[in-house]
Amino acid sequence: MKIIALEKQITTQNKGHILTNTGVWSPDSNWIVYDTRSDPSGKVFDGSTIEMVNIHTGEVKVLYHSTNGANCGVATFHPHDNKVAFILSPEHPTPDWQYSASHRQGVIVDVSRPDIAINLDARDLTSPFTPGALRGGSHVHVWDANGEWVSFTYEDHILSQFKEETSEHEINLRNVGVSAPVGGVHAKKGHPRNHGGEFFSVVVSRTTANPKPGSDEIKKAFEESWVGTNGYLRPDGTRQRRALAFQGFVVTAKGETISEVFIVDLPDDITLSGDVPLSGTETRRPYPPKGTIQRRLTYTANNKYPGIEGPRHWLRSSPDGSLIAFLMKDEDGIVQLWTISPNGGEPLQITHNSWSISSAFTWSPDGRYIAHVMDNSVAMTEVTTGKTLRLTPRSDDINAPRPETCVFSPDGKKIAYIRRMPSDGKVYNQIFVVTLKKI
Prior knowledge:
Number of domains: 2
CATH topology of the largest domain: Neuraminidase
Strand content: 35-45%
Radius of gyration: 21 Å
Largest sheet: 4 strands, antiparallel
CATH class of the largest domain: Mainly Beta
Low-confidence stretches: none
Helix content: under 10%
CATH architecture of the largest domain: 6 Propeller
């Protein structure tokens, strides 16, 4: 059997088109959701609309217009329903409350009801803080495979006033969290930026500002992924229903900060607090729910090139939950695909290519392939053999596939990505799709 790839440019408008690193396809694989931030990578949060485009006809539908000085971006589709989640920056921004990592929220829009956004996460900035509400900003909202819970990264407004951690107070650190539809959260009116939310939201990772060198303590949790479409199997044969894999910054025995692979097993009930309140205090970070277990999976400090390396990427789990994929350099300094079991063990090198993997990546729905960019081409690697197939010809640097995204469609037949294309004397991000056909 041979696979041929047919490339097609989907968008042509002279404006920004930014794809999230996962979840950009509609459940039927016919539409792609994007935002309209203006710069190539999306670092400038200036998008004013969330839109979707039909890959067959080119029809564009605007799902949301931001208003009152707000901006929007980083959109992802629900896996089964026609609705999208995305980041919304503050409406009516003020000098002391503008867009930042701790001043943003998640919202949801139903495709059939454009411009009607409901709050995903609640916010409460007044002590005592409301359980299930956040005290800061959420970012990159991704549903689990069942379309029930949503993961995100989080930063805390309350503790952002402190610059150094002491015995008296902690500081803001990036963490990962989840939102679950276990009942709406109503925040009190003690602050003008307080608001309710449809989901109950909690932080699930545990960080510390000053990790002990050589320990498993982390000072940042980020770039997370749901593990499996139905969790993963433990060594004893029982199933962990929900877990997140993520990158964590550790400090090595030599004092160097590197990123390693971590996993957090989630309890079925995230509303139960442990020894510290879920919503934290005025001087302490929010704390994971009772029964949350955080573990380190990789130990690479002694490698020639230690730590997770390569372009910015989110960890990605195989659909069956047995493997977590990440990028790391080999002994020659080339960024390759690697995997590790959620139960731990030694990492397995998947690719042995002469060129570095140069983008974020996603698994095919059947778990056979991983789509990524390499040597200015869209490619996919067969996980069992490590063989990489180049799907598009090598491009010039100026219009090579962008590193931020390379996303398989739910039907496994298409891959979405971005190229920079010239038009009217300028260059714009445009969405492309490569369709795979077996002959």
